[in-house]
Design brief:
Blueprint: E1 5-8, H1 17-31, H2 38-56, H3 62-76, H4 83-96, H5 104-114, E2 117-122, H6 126-134, E3 144-147, H7 148-151, H8 158-167, E4 176-180, H9 183-193, E5 197-200, E6 215-217
Parallel strand pairs: 1-2, 1-4, 2-3, 4-5, 5-6
Length: about 230
């Protein structure tokens, strides 16, 4: 066993977040009488992505992002709705939707059977992510979840990983592997923390100069040969 401790990102690494998000958004539109279409969701998604990018750059808070996305979306579609209520209903629906990515359940089951200690590391909204984890097949495989909102720091900050190490004193730079899809949070975060990392890159996007990637996979099953 090369890495007894495995730190998994959740969304777009284990969970199909676009599917969960689109279904939750459609439900929110139904509740608030907002005309829904793929184009409408695409508009919301673009606004949402732009705002989360500012959070990743530590320019704004998570609370700002989750509310401001609906402020901007409703302005863009010229509708008068309560953005706080829209966001609350979206988050509630998001917490109920868990769709594993291909082979995620199979791989996690095998890793657990092999004796790995597995943890979720995520910047998601704590109440939503905990509900999703509890309602998912992954609950039985993971020893815990470290959510930035509760940690007081977020990926890619070194402070976030220092928090994890305080919770798991046995975890070191030699026995743990961080796995995730995002270069800006998962891989940069592992670099900042001095942890080995594996980039999950199913779309085979180009690498970014200046980032250390110890492993790169396009299929989660490849992880079984690494750890």
């Amino acid at each position: 066993m090369n890495y007894p401790y495995l730190l998994f990102d959740a969304d777009d690494t284990l969970f199909d977040f676009p599917k969960s998000s689109s279904k939750a958004f459609a439900y929110m539109c139904q509740i608030h009488d907002i005309p829904y279409s793929p184009e409408t969701y695409r508009l919301y998604h673009e606004i949402n992505q732009e705002l989360w990018a500012t959070f990743d750059r530590r320019e704004v808070t998570k609370d700002f992002v989750t509310l401001e996305r609906y402020v901007r979306f409703l302005k863009a579609v010229n509708l008068e709705r309560d953005p706080a209520h829209c966001n609350a209903d979206y988050l509630a629906a998001l917490g109920e939707g868990v769709y594993p990515l291909p082979y995620a359940e199979e791989v996690c089951r095998i890793l657990r059977e092999r004796g790995h200690r597995m943890y979720i590391i995520t910047n998601a909204v704590a109440s939503v992510q905990r509900t999703r984890l509890q309602n998912s097949v992954f609950a039985q495989f993971f020893d815990g979840a470290f959510i930035s909102e509760e940690a007081g720091a977020a990926k890619p900050d070194r402070a976030y990983y220092d928090y994890i190490r305080r919770q798991i004193p046995e975890l070191t730079e030699k026995n743990a592997l961080a796995i995730g899809d995002s270069l800006t949070t998962d891989i940069q975060g592992a670099n900042n923390a001095g942890l080995p990392c594996c980039w999950y890159n199913p779309k085979k996007q180009p690498r970014r100069a200046g980032l250390r990637m110890d492993y790169e996979i396009s299929d989660l099953r490849e992880l079984l040969e690494i750890v």
